[in-house]
Amino acid sequence: MKRAILILFSILTLANAEQIKRPPNIILIYADDLGAGLLGCYGQQIIKTPNIDRLADEGMRFTYAHGCKYCAPARASLLTGLHDGHRGAWNISRGGQTIKMDKGELTQQELETYLAKQVQAADGEVFLAQLAQQAGYITGQFGKLDWGFQTSHERLVRHGWDHYVGYYDHQRAHGFYPTYLWKDGEKLMLPGNTHLNAGKTMETYGLDATERRRDRTGKSVYSQDVFLKEMLAFIRTNKDRPFFLYHSTQLPHGPVDIPEVHPAVANDERLTDVEKEYASMVIMLDDHVGKIMAELKKLGLDKNTIVFFTSDNGHEIYYWERSKKGKARNRQYHGEDDVFKGSRDLAGTKWTPFQGGLSVPLIARWPGRIAAGTTNNRLTANYDFMPTLAALAAVPMPDGKDGLSWLPTLYGKSSPEHDYIFVDNSTVITRGGWKLVPEKVKGGKVQYLLFNLNDDPGEREDLAKRHPEKFARLNAILERERSSFRQDLPKSE
Questions:
Q1: Nearest by Cα to 198 from 163, 169, 228
Q2: Residue 481 within any structural domain of the chain
Q3: What is the pTM of this model?
Q4: In sequence order, what are the beta bridge partners of 3?
Q5: At 105, which CATH number?
Q6: Between the CA of residue 67 and those of 47, 59, 359, 413, 452, what are the distances in Å?
Q7: How far apart are CA 99 and CA 105, in angstroms?
Q8: Which of 89, 129, 202, 391 could form a disulfide with 405 if both were Cys (CB 3.0 to 4.6 A apart)?
Q9: Which bin fits 327, alpha (ψ -120 to 50), beta or left (φ > 0)?
Q10: Contact present, 50 and 288 (Cβ < 8 Å)
Q11: Cα 476 to chain center, whole Å?
């Protein structure tokens, strides 16, 4: 009897030791065009986001995090660990090729030939998911695959993904009802969806637009519902081993399209029809975050899973009448007429290098490891996620990448920080709040402006002439980083 008890005790001790040694599961939820101001934890007043807010309440919320001014360079920076100023760091391929193939305008061979001409991964180049693989993680990506605008099974495998479900073509991802998605190199057919462009709606929100937008003819299966189902299945299947789940969702990228208006905003008299639908897209994203968190708790994985939530770039307004469209894409715009204030009164929106286009939410939650309800103003960029994941997974970080791990920051400890970040191949932002940024002026010319974000977060007053020494220092950084040679590839003998 004593021997049996000792054996049982030994088994339980070993099991507990294995559980302690097991690295944490990692989930990265990467929203699309989600300005921080759309979340309650960053000040949103109309749209309720309780599940994402709970991540912040139970973890750490960053206030000085940056993406790029639009999706592809942001995602490439995330997955390569490089800023977007390096010569030949990556290639952004032309979108819409899969749609052409399905229309019979392009053969599969022609598509493969086109992709083969694009810049391919170099020998020895390391990508984000590969670091997780090196640590024994199984990796899965769900949503807008890769960094776009066109990818393939071969590329996704090369970039380190064991499993994936989503769009090869980011142009098609502007619709939410594709006839099929790609699942591990095979087509996942979606019966009832008949539109080759995935049912993309028109960005015209005038008279009769609501009826056209809500027409469900040929629209049976909403892509986000597929991603949620597949992600939950991925978590269940891999609950007994470490996993890295990357959800590169389409939400709330426009054009606006949602199966139904959420009851929370359906009768809100402050909102137009299209604003209610857009709000419902944000709420759906929040609901899906809640379902993922509920599944983790149900499976007993909650305490050994670190969850990150962020976005690729700043706010974009997909719900204006045509007459107003475009006015947000300059420094003089600070959220006027935007009912949701998604850019938090910062200058510009997506497509601009001003803070409204670059500033993103960043939240990290890990019970027992990250202090609940904390905020941090550490200067971060997309390319910092790779060293952070490497530190979490306890694998060596490849040489020559641009990021710095902020894992110690999550633990409340000090660690090396950036003196500056370089984004948009044009913009320098320093830890102390100084920013050098280009602005187009009359005649299509570009001039560089200098701002102090601490005193002037809306980038209203150019300080270049008042602080010529600061302007010169940041300009020297710009010239050094722009079109610089990458340092992360193995040196040839």
A1: 169
A2: no
A3: 0.94
A4: none
A5: 3.40.720.10
A6: 23, 21, 6, 24, 19
A7: 9
A8: 391
A9: alpha
A10: no
A11: 30
257, part of any domain: yes
Compute CA distances 188 → 46, 158, 173, 179, 294, whole Å.
Answer: 37, 21, 15, 9, 26
Residue-wise DSSP of 121-190: PPTT---HHHHHHHTT-EEEEEEE-SSSSB--HHHHHHTT-SEEEEESBTTGGGSS--SEEEETTEEEE-
In single-letter form, the type of residue at position 107 comes to: T
Give the CA radius of gyration of the chain.
23
For residue 60, the surrounding DSSP H or E stretch is: strand 60-62
Number of domains in the chain: 1
Does residue 188 contact residue 180 with C-beta atoms inside 8 Å? yes
Instruction: Report the distance separating Cα 184 and Cα 315, nearest Å.
Output: 32
Dihedral sign computed on CA atoms, order 150, 231, 225, 181: positive
Residues 6 or more apart in contact with residue 427 via CB below 8 angstroms: 353, 358, 435, 436, 437, 438
State the first-to-last Cα distance of the chain, in angstroms, to the nearest integer: 65
* DSSP 8-class letter at 293: H
Residue 206 domain-assigned? yes
Give the separation between CA 350 and CA 71, rounded to whole angstroms.
9
**For the segment 35-76, what is each residue's pLDDT rounded down to a tens digit?**
999 999 999 999 999 999 999 999 999 999 999 999 999 999
Alpha-carbon distance of 383 to 77, in angstroms, equals 5
Determine the length of the chain: 493
Tokens 């007459």 sit at which residue? Answer: 323
C-alpha to C-alpha distance for 317 and 456, rounded to whole angstroms:
23
Is 160 within a domain? yes
Phi first, then psi: give them for residue 422, nearest 5 degrees.
Answer: -125, 120
Q: What is the pLDDT of residues 370-421, one digit of tens each?
A: 999 999 999 999 999 999 999 999 999 999 999 999 999 999 999 999 999 9
**In 240-376, which residue ranges form alpha helices assigned H by DSSP?**
263-266, 273-298, 355-358
In terms of residue numbers, what domain contains 314? 23-418
